[in-house]
Design goal:
The protein is of the alpha/beta class. It has ten helices and eleven strands. Helix 1 packs parallel to helix 10 and helix 6 packs across helix 10 (272-292). The protein binds guanine.
Length: 293
């Protein structure tokens, strides 16, 4: 089968071309889109993500400020910082990098973010709009998945779509978006997860699989039908002594094993991960426009 590799970089470049025009237009009005990224503790992966977000913003002539807080910070101090950023007109978007240390109440913290600056789309108000089919800020990773489907003209209308993973960040919103009555929706969506019995009964019937469960190489060729399209959201580290770092990053799908059988697939890395940062930029630019209206 002539498998198409769904390259996040190509999709991202197209989106960035458009964003560059919008960013120039904002500059003419004296506005530079600016993100406040809050990171609590020293989780190396979180630090890496936040730094890569800052780099992308800089490359696209946008601003960002990283607030690095101690892992034992008091909840009230974090809430106070969010309030301060909410009221600072310099910042158009706020992101609190997840996961947070256990002593912090994630829901309470996300609820504190001004919904107008909630470029992650994690505030309950924005989650509600999304469920209603009237999203304001679409969470960045699901948004990136939709943009990949759109760029490569992968029709979702009436298709059997299996989403694996029920996280608030990816699984739940993407399942909702793909089932809504929209161009890249109208799918018949089944939401599977780590407790699903006989997962392959579902995946074998899927025309499209979105894997976002965080289990390395969960999906192999015996679990899919010929010609399926696969969006692999997984970013998992597995030991690999042959690498300098001692590990490599793989998806939830065994890429090499399924390659011959699929119509298209996102690689890991190089697929969805690239898109997440681009959609964060897109949401921040949108927030900046909204805030001058
Ligand atoms: N942790 C993993 N993905 C994300 C994301 O998209 N946003 C935030 N804030 N934290 C994350």
């Amino acid at each position: 089968m002539d498998t198409v590799i769904l390259k996040g970089k190509d999709v991202s470049s197209r989106i960035k071309e458009n964003l560059a025009i919008q960013i120039s237009n904002l500059k003419l009005k004296g506005i530079i889109p600016c993100l406040a990224a809050i990171i609590v503790g020293k989780n190396p992966a979180s630090k890496l993500y936040v730094n890569s977000k800052a780099k992308t913003f800089k490359n696209m002539n946008c601003d960002s400020e990283i607030f690095t807080l101690d892992s034992d910070i008091d909840e009230k101090d974090l809430l106070f910082l969010i309030e301060k950023i909410n009221n600072d007109t310099k910042f158009h978007g706020i992101l609190v990098q997840l996961p947070l240390p256990k002593h912090l109440n994630e829901e309470k913290i996300l609820e504190k973010i001004n919904p107008e600056k909630d470029v992650d789309g994690f505030h309950p108000k924005n989650k509600g709009y999304l469920m209603q089919g009237n999203p304001s800020f679409i969470p960045c990773t699901p948004y990136g998945c939709l943009k990949i489907l759109e760029y490569y003209n992968i029709d979702t209308n009436g298709k059997n779509i299996v989403v694996i993973g029920r996280s608030n960040i990816v699984g739940k919103p993407i399942a909702s978006l793909l089932s809504q009555n929209t161009k890249y929706g109208n799918g018949t969506v089944t939401l599977c997860h780590s407790r699903t019995k006989n997962l392959s009964d579902f995946t074998k019937k899927a025309d499209i699989i979105v894997a976002a469960v965080g289990i390395p190489h969960l999906i192999n060729k015996d679990m899919i039908k010929d010609g399926v399209h696969i969006i692999d959201v997984g970013i998992n580290r597995i030991d690999d002594k042959s690498k300098d770092k001692g590990y490599r990053v793989v998806g939830d799908v065994d890429f090499d094993n399924v390659l011959e059988k699929v119509s298209s697939i996102t690689p890991v890395p190089g697929g969805v991960g690239v898109m997440t940062v681009t959609m964060l930029l897109s949401n921040t630019v949108k927030a900046a426009f909204n805030q001058i209206k």
